[in-house]
Each structure stands twice: as C-alpha cells, then as structure tokens.
Amino acid sequence: MTSLRELLRVGPAVDLKDIDPGSTPGLPGRKVTGKDQKGWAREQLASMAPELARQQEMLYAGAKASGDRRRLLLVLQAMDCGGKDGTIKKVAGAMNPLGLHIVGFGAPTEEELRHDFLWRIRRALPPAGLVGVFNRSHYEDVLIARVESLVPERVWRSRYWQINGFERDLINDGLTPVKVMLHISYDEQRQRLMERLTDPTKHWKYNPADVDARARWTDYQAAYNDALSRCSTDHSPWYVVPADRKWYRDWAVANIVLEALTEMRLSYPRSDFDLDAERRRLEADRTPTMAS
Amino acid sequence: MTSLRELLRVGPAVDLKDIDPGSTPGLPGRKVTGKDQKGWAREQLASMAPELARQQEMLYAGAKASGDRRRLLLVLQAMDCGGKDGTIKKVAGAMNPLGLHIVGFGAPTEEELRHDFLWRIRRALPPAGLVGVFNRSHYEDVLIARVESLVPERVWRSRYWQINGFERDLINDGLTPVKVMLHISYDEQRQRLMERLTDPTKHWKYNPADVDARARWTDYQAAYNDALSRCSTDHSPWYVVPADRKWYRDWAVANIVLEALTEMRLSYPRSDFDLDAERRRLEADRTPTMAS
C-alpha cells in the first residue's frame, strides 16, 4: 500500500485550487456510504492509539535512558476554523500527555518583535524524546505577515529560504518535522463560523476579526500556495490534508504521524546496568531500616 | 455524600504510618470483591472523562474570551514508583492536551541553583485558563534537600513557611492548588522496581539510584510527615491518596480534581459581540473575493 504521506505530499508547484477539501484520499472502501466511511475512520483512529502511544514511549525512553536526541514536531497550519485545535485534541490526545510539548503561536509580543522571526520558534522546539505540536508556526511569518503587509515584501520574500535552512539544521540535530496544512473550503469555514455563533458553548471561539481575515481568503490561499511550493522540500515536505470532513482529517493526520514515527525505527533502549545484580539488591531489601 | 477531598485531606499532625497504602477510602461497594471494585473504578474514571474535559474547556474559554485569570495546579509528590507518571497518563490523559501545562522537576540545574528555590517553580506555573500538573515540585526542597542534606537545616526549616506564603499568593492570583501525595508501601515499591527489571520495555524506567534512595525510606517518610503537617493549610490542603492499587489511585485523583474544578463554578463566557450582526455578515459572505 502506498503510504499516505506519498499521497498527500505536495510539490514545488502546488495550487490549493486543485485539491478538493471534501475529498478523502487514501481512505479504503470508497464505495461504502459516507456514514460507513466515517465510522470506519473513527474506529481506525481509536485502534491506532495504542501504537501511537507505544511509538511515543519508545521515543521518550530513548532520550531518557540513552541520550537519543531525536524528537518529532508536528506543525499545523490552516485557515481559521481549519481544525487545528480539533486535530490536536484527537491525535495528540491519543498520546501520553507527559511526552507532548504543545505550543501555540499568536500575534508576536513586543519582546518577540525585537528578535528575528525564528527566535520564538527556536525557544518553543520540543526537547529530545518529545512529540512537539505547533499550533500555527513560523509559517505565519510568510502568511499573515505577507497578506497584512506587516513587513516589507523583501523581508517576507527572504524568509522562505531562511525557513528551509532553519528546518535543515533542525533535522541535522535529530528533529523530524511533520508539516501539515489542513485544507478547508470557503463554504465550510462559513458553516463552522456560523456554528460558533449558534452554539452558546462555542461563542468563546468566535472572533469577529476572523470574518475580516475571511475577506482576504484569496490572498491567503495565494500566500499558502507560495509557502507550500517553496518550503515543501525533500528533507522537510508539506502534506495537505483535505479537512472539510473532520473524521478524515483526524484519521489522516494520525496516520501521517504514525508513519513518520515508524520510519524512525524506534526501540526500547537496552539497560546499561547489571540486571542480576540489581535484582539481588532488591531481593535482599525487604524491611525499611533507620538510616539516621 | 462526603466529598473525597474531605476524606483524604490530612491535618497538622499527619503520620503516614496511620494511612494504609492498600486501602480504598471513599470507594463505594466495599463488600464486593477486589476485582469488581477495580472494574467499577475503571468504569467510573472513563465516565468522568467527558465532565473533566468540559470543566477544563470552561476554564480555558474563560481565560481566552473574558480575561478570567483562574487556573488549577495539580501537584503530585510520591516516593519513586509511587505512580506519578501513571496518574498523569490516566487523569491528565482524560483532558484536552491543548489545555494542559505539565512540568516535571528533576535535580536543579546550575542556573536554577543560582536563584532561590521557588524561582524555577514560578516560571513553571500554568498560565490563566490552563490545568497545570507538577510532576514533583517545590516540595522536593524540603524532602530530598533535607534527607540528602543538600542545604543546611536552618535553610530547609525556613522553607515550610516560605512555601505557605508562596501558595497563599498564588491563590490570591487565581490559582487553585490541588496537592496530592501518592502513598505507596515499601513492599509495593520493591515489587514495582522488580517489574521494571523484569519487563524489557520497562528497563529504561529503572534507575539504580532509586534503590539507594530506598535505603533512606524511613527518613523520607519522616520528611513527608513534616512537609504534609506543616504545609497542609486551610487555603492549600494536602491530600494523601493510598496508591498501592493503581485503579483506586487514578479514580481518587480524578475525583479530587473534578471536585476542585466543580467548586470553581465555571461557566462558558457570554459573547461580547452582537450575535445577530455577525450572523448577517456571514450570511452575506458566500464567495471569496479578490481583495488585492
């Protein structure tokens, strides 16, 4: 079976217009009804959870016991309502919270603005052994920064190659980037915004500024096309996940992450102490003694 | 029904010797067999998960939408193998990872040692709206620091009241501390260490230094008795959870956290924008336009 990453990976001339946000590439059983596909995808996600957690534990154990510097970083980008939070809840939620390092990026603070755009990113990278998740990322600096003209064009234009160099350095230091763009349609965004207005337990998620950003939809799609085209490199590819169907999105992202972890060929570290000697020490030691 | 917090809370003259690590206080149906109790507790934990997640979401929403500064901090302390990691996996694992802020404390770094003992703790506090978890905490500074004589006695003695003042300040700033000591027996610790030696997927958790610390068991229990007695205050009580039975431990900690969240009387924030006006804006806006 072709890996899902191969199917969803984008190349140097990607145009989001060519990717249907409602499609479900790689999902077996396309001939069954939509409802059955959804049930199947949800079941598959649940049955993947133990393996995701096991891979994550091996990654963690390697860093803890034998100084393995490897770590994984899931980078999530999307338009508003694209489902970043929901994906984190479902995919990262299947893992052990002790081994997660989740960071969200909003508008930069004054202090962050006094540094180069990668400064706050470097500080937020997952330590060895952890699975990091970026809820938005350094890609905002070639998306909103470009669309809203927060910096001059020559500045954001120079960032594509800066990002590529930065990610290459991270890989050389043992980090595996998994960059996922959750691709929703203009109409699906409207429906999700409307839902936030309708359900009182979702009002807090609604931000009138999101509708202002929506007015610049076409500009954002163009900025995404450039970011994906220029920064989907051999060493650090981008995956575009059609995300109008939440059950497909969660299934796909979990699969992509699991494929990346599996490719790392992780294993539980061997002990560097004498197992028998330790067993004897423990056997001998059955009653607490007063040490002082 | 008496709250579990009332049952497990300890007072100013606690002695761990008086608390049976194998007991299951507050668990209904004590007359059924151990196996049935375990199944019941596991089921209860699973059925509590949605309510834990809902409370956590309301806490998060309040900070995000209306500047509510409240947050909760679960402080976990235990002897080695006491089950801190397992508790986090089960209890925090029932929540949304986006709303968690988990920090583990090991031996202080050189930089940390150049500051007062609460410096690294302050930097690790959960931001408004989050559920923080401390895997070990500032209490190590009156436990290992005392037992291993890392600082002179006058120094660790002065820390009890410093901790009480520190926690009072946190509460005044909107933080709800939930301090839980997982109480295991000397024999249970031996069995768990042995299991780590036997199961190759657990070797990485085994540290020969844990057996050295085990030789000072009685000193540690005395240090715990003092820390619990002096720092279980009206505003910031300590709960001792018998932890030889993992299923009781997880059930009890989840209950304590849920009780604390419920007592905060959280609710979803009201919107501060005009719902109808926003709906009209969205309805009008069905096709992406070129903004530039």
UniProtKB/TrEMBL annotation, chains A, B:
Keywords of this protein's UniProt record, alphabetized? Kinase, Transferase
Q: Origin, by domain of life?
A: Bacteria
Recorded GO MF terms: kinase activity
**Which InterPro entries does the entry link to?**
P-loop_NTPase (IPR027417), PPK2-rel_1 (IPR022300), PPK2-related (IPR022488)
Looking at the record, the residues that make up the Polyphosphate kinase-2-related domain are 53-264
State the PANTHER family in the record: POLYPHOSPHATE:AMP PHOSPHOTRANSFERASE, POLYPHOSPHATE:AMP PHOSPHOTRANSFERASE-RELATED
Q: What is this protein called?
A: PPK2 family polyphosphate kinase
Organism of origin: Phytohabitans kaempferiae
